Amino acid sequence: MALQGIRFRLDTTPDTNSTSELASAVNSSTTTIPVDDGSDFVAGQNIKIQSEEMHITSISGNNLTVVRGVNGTSAASHSSTSLDIFEDDSPTFTPSRMPDMDVVETTAYKGILQNQAYGGKIYTNEKFGKQLEFELNYTNLSSSDRSLLEALFNAVKGQKLTFQFSADDGSTFNTVRFTKPDLKFTQTTYNIFSVGIVLRQEVS
Fold first, then answer.
1. Could you give the 3-state DSSP secondary structure of residue 101?
2. pLDDT at residue 129 tops 90
3. Which residue in 79, 127, 133, 167 has a CA-CA distance of 20 to 30 Å to 99?
């Protein structure tokens, strides 16, 4: 299935004080969050106000357009102004071109079940056994897009470290790692590349 919202980050936890604060109260359904300085944020970040995490999709002046209640948190009303807003400050490694993706299940070990939906299908993770693998096939990548994937691979030391992957524009991030020891790019024409990568989800 073709994907429109692939995102790669090293860390999506909003653990850094942005120095901005909530400019006015918001209810649990609004998707526009007024802050006192919109320049403190970038689209694609996750932020946290009190116990709720949100994902920024766009910014206009001092107004953040967000997806509410992401990463297992719940949308809530925030009635106090001057609330601190925490942000993730991890770099992103997302090519501008979206891949085709297939989701497969690994071994058939019967462990602790955790169901997740991708592309209208339900897949089952099994703790210590069956896990999801995301097969991403990129075509017609520019040199700059290739460099992003190489930088991500180097940042996580290949297969050694986990990182964060989203298939839904950042509403939900999964902890994954590369399954192959290298990235094998094919140059299809001058400075245009293709590559296939496989990510395995870590089940906590």
1. strand
2. no
3. 127
